C-alpha cells in the first residue's frame, strides 16, 4: 500500500536532477579512440595488395591500381560502397601499411543511394577533416597527416 | 455582455442560439489551447521524471511542439483500410469526441458561471455522456477490421463500463453531502458546514474517484485499451491523420473535463483566497492533471486479468462503504 507512495516519491525526486540528454546535433559525445566510423584513406601508403577487398565481408571495397615506372603498384581508384559497409574494421586490421583507417564520422544519411558510393577523393578528404578535428594538422596535406616514415618503418618491422 | 451569455434567462430564439454557438466556439478554442499545452506538459513532466529534457526543438522550451505535431497530422493522408466498415470508421472518432466536449458544458470553470449550464442534473448528465464515448471507441475498433483494434476496443468496453460504476458511486457520496446533483450547487455547498473541501470528509470517495477516473480516461496504469507493448496501438491502430488526431483530442479533452469535475466536486471549485476564481480552478484542475501524468511516470500497467476483479471486488465495495458512512454521517449531523 505504502509502496505506491514510495514510487511516487522516487519519480518526483528525479525532476530536479541533472538531465542526461545530449542535444545531439549541437553537442556530441566524446567518441572513444577506437570508434569505428567512416574510413579515411591514404593513397601514398597503399600498395594495392587487395587484402582489404578480399577480407571485406560485404565486398563493399573495389579498387584498381597500376604498375608505375619504378615497378611499384600505385592505387588508381579506391571505392567503398557505404550502403553495404558494416564498419567492421577488418580492412583496417589486414592493411599492412595502415593506408585504410577509420575515423569518428558516421553521419552518412543521403537522399539517393548513389551518394553512398564514396570514391578515393572523398575518403582522402574525410581523412583531412578528421585530422583537422583531432588537431593533428593545420592546413597541411594528407601526406603529412600520417607520418609516412614512421608507418613505413612499422611496416618494415613486420 | 456577460448576461448575454446567460442562457437560462432568455427564450431560445435566433439571438440566444447565436450566443450559444459563439460561447461554445470560445470554449472549444480555450479547450484546444489547454489540450495543446497539456500534451506538451505531459511530455515534459514525464521527460523530467526520466532524466530527459522532453521536447525542446520547436520553439522556446518546445512550446510549439504540439502545434507542429497537430499540423503534421492534419497534412497526413487519411487512410481508410480496404476491409474496414467505411461509414463507421469515419464517424467513430466524432462519436468519441462529441461527448468528451459536451460534458464541459456543466463544468463550472468560473465563479460567474460563464459558459456553464447550471443543470440541476449536472452529475447525471456528466456520467451519462461519458458513457457514450465508449461507443465511439468500440465502433472505431470494430470498424477497423483489425485484430489489435478489436482487442483494444473490447478491452476498453469492459474497462470503461466497469469503472463507470465506482466513479459514479464515489461521486454519490459528494452528492449526499451537498444534497444536490447540480455541480454549481455542490461547489457552493462546500462553503457550509463542515467548512472544508469535500476531499477531507470524502477522502475514501476521493481515492476511489481517482482510481476510477484514471481507468475511465484509460491512462496509465489502466491504459490497457491502447497498450503499445501488447496491442500495436489498441483501438486506433488503423487510424491516421485527422481522425487519429481526433481520438487523441478526445482523450485529452476528457482528461481536462475529468480534472474540472474533480476540482469542482472535491476541491471547492473556484473558491480560494486572494487569486481570482478561474485561476484557482486552473490550479486545482492542473494539480489533478499533474497527478495523472505523475501516475503515468510511476506506475506499471495493471495486468489484464486483475483489471475487472479490481473494479468489482475492491473499488465498488469501497465506494459502497463510503456511501454508507456518508449516509450515516448525514443522519447524525
UniProtKB/TrEMBL annotation, chain A:
Q: Per the similarity annotation, which family is this?
A: Belongs to the complex I 23 kDa subunit family.
> Keyword Nucleotidyltransferase, does the record have it?
no
Co-factor requirement: [4Fe-4S] cluster
Q: Could you mention a single GO BP entry for this protein?
A: aerobic respiration
NCBIfam families listed in its UniProt record: NuoI (TIGR01971)
Q: Which GO terms describe its cellular component?
A: membrane
Native organism is Collibacillus ludicampi
Q: Which InterPro entries match?
A: 4Fe4S_Fe-S-bd, 4Fe4S_Fe_S_CS, NADH_quinone_OxRdtase_chainI
Tell me the organism's taxonomic lineage.
Bacteria, Bacillati, Bacillota, Bacilli, Bacillales
Q: Name one Pfam family in it.
A: Fer4_7
PROSITE patterns on file: 4FE4S_FER_1 (PS00198), 4FE4S_FER_2 (PS51379)
Q: Which residues form the 4Fe-4S ferredoxin-type domain?
A: 37-66, 76-105
UniProt-recorded name of the protein = NADH-quinone oxidoreductase subunit I
UniProtKB/TrEMBL annotation, chain B:
From the UniProt record, which GO molecular function terms apply?
A: NADH dehydrogenase activity; oxidoreductase activity, acting on NAD(P)H, quinone or similar compound as acceptor; quinone binding
Please list every transmembrane segment annotated in the UniProt record, as residue ranges: 17-40, 88-111, 123-144, 165-183, 195-215, 252-272, 278-294, 314-332
Please give the biological process terms from Gene Ontology that the record holds: aerobic respiration
Q: Does the keyword Translocase feature in the UniProt annotation?
A: yes
According to the UniProt entry, the coiled-coil residues are none
* Pfam families the record matches: NADHdh
Q: Where in the cell is it found?
A: Cell membrane; Membrane
Q: What class of enzyme is it?
A: translocase
Which InterPro entries has this protein been placed in?
Answer: NADH_UbQ_OxRdtase_su1/FPO (IPR001694), NADH_UbQ_OxRdtase_su1_CS (IPR018086)
- Note whether Cell membrane occurs among the keywords: yes
**E.C. designation(s):** 7.1.1.-
Quote a single Gene Ontology cellular component term.
Answer: plasma membrane
Major subcellular location class: membrane
Role noted for this protein: NDH-1 shuttles electrons from NADH, via FMN and iron-sulfur (Fe-S) centers, to quinones in the respiratory chain. The immediate electron acceptor for the enzyme in this species is believed to be ubiquinone. Couples the redox reaction to proton translocation (for every two electrons transferred, four hydrogen ions are translocated across the cytoplasmic membrane), and thus conserves the redox energy in a proton gradient. This subunit may bind ubiquinone.
What is the annotated quaternary arrangement, including any partners?
NDH-1 is composed of 14 different subunits. Subunits NuoA, H, J, K, L, M, N constitute the membrane sector of the complex.
What protein am I looking at? NADH-quinone oxidoreductase subunit H
Which organism was this protein described from?
Collibacillus ludicampi
Amino acid at each position: 500500500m505504502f509502496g505506491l507512495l514510495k514510487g511516487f516519491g522516487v519519480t518526483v525526486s528525479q525532476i530536479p536532477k541533472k538531465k542526461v540528454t545530449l542535444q545531439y546535433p549541437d553537442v556530441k559525445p566524446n567518441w572513444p579512440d577506437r570508434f569505428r566510423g567512416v574510413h579515411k584513406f591514404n593513397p601514398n601508403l597503399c600498395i594495392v595488395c587487395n587484402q582489404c577487398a578480399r577480407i571485406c565481408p560485404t565486398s563493399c571495397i573495389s579498387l584498381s591500381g597500376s604498375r608505375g615506372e619504378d615497378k611499384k603498384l600505385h592505387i588508381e581508384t579506391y571505392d567503398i560502397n557505404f550502403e553495404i559497409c558494416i564498419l567492421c574494421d577488418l580492412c583496417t586490421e589486414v592493411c599492412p601499411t595502415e593506408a585504410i583507417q577509420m575515423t569518428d564520422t558516421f553521419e552518412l544519411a543521403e537522399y539517393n543511394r548513389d551518394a553512398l558510393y564514396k570514391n578515393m577523393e572523398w575518403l582522402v578528404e574525410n581523412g583531412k577533416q578528421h585530422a583537422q578535428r583531432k588537431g593533428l594538422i593545420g592546413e597541411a596535406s594528407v601526406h603529412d597527416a600520417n607520418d609516412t616514415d614512421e608507418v613505413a618503418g612499422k611496416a618494415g618491422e613486420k | 455582455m456577460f448576461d448575454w451569455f446567460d442562457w437560462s434567462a432568455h427564450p431560445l430564439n435566433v439571438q440566444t442560439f447565436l450566443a450559444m454557438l459563439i460561447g461554445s466556439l470560445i470554449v472549444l478554442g480555450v479547450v484546444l489551447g489547454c489540450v495543446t499545452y497539456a500534451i506538451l506538459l505531459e511530455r515534459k513532466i514525464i521527460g523530467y521524471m526520466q532524466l530527459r529534457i522532453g521536447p525542446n526543438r520547436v520553439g522556446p522550451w518546445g512550446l510549439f511542439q504540439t502545434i507542429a505535431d497537430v499540423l503534421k497530422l492534419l497534412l497526413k493522408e487519411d487512410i481508410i483500410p480496404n476491409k474496414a466498415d467505411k461509414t463507421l470508421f469515419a464517424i467513430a472518432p466524432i462519436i468519441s469526441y462529441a461527448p468528451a466536449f459536451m460534458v464541459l458544458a456543466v463544468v463550472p470553470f468560473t465563479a460567474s458561471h460563464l459558459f456553464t449550464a447550471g443543470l440541476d442534473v449536472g452529475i447525471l448528465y456528466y456520467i451519462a455522456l461519458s458513457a457514450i464515448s465508449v461507443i465511439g471507441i468500440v465502433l472505431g475498433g470494430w470498424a477497423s477490421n483489425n485484430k489489435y483494434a478489436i482487442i483494444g476496443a473490447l478491452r476498453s468496453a469492459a474497462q470503461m463500463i466497469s469503472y463507470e460504476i465506482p466513479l459514479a458511486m464515489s461521486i454519490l457520496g459528494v452528492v449526499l453531502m451537498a444534497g444536490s446533483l447540480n455541480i454549481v450547487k455542490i461547489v457552493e455547498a462546500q462553503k457550509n458546514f463542515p467548512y472544508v473541501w469535500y476531499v477531507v470528509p470524502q477522502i475514501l470517495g476521493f481515492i476511489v474517484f481517482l482510481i476510477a477516473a484514471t481507468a475511465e480516461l484509460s491512462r496509465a496504469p489502466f491504459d490497457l485499451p491502447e497498450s503499445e507493448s501488447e496491442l500495436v496501438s489498441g483501438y486506433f491502430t488503423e487510424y491516421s491523420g485527422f481522425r487519429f488526431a481526433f481520438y487523441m483530442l478526445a482523450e485529452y479533452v476528457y482528461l481536462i473535463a475529468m480534472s474540472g469535475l474533480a476540482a469542482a466536486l472535491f476541491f471547492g471549485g473556484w473558491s480560494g483566497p486572494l487569486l481570482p476564481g478561474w485561476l484557482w480552478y486552473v490550479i486545482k484542475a492542473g494539480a489533478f492533471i499533474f497527478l495523472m501524468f505523475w501516475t503515468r511516470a510511476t506506475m506499471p500497467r495493471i495486468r489484464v486479468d486483475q483489471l475487472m476483479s479490481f473494479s468489482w471486488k475492491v473499488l465498488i465495495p469501497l465506494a459502497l462503504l463510503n456511501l454508507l458512512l456518508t449516509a450515516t454521517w448525514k443522519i447524525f449531523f
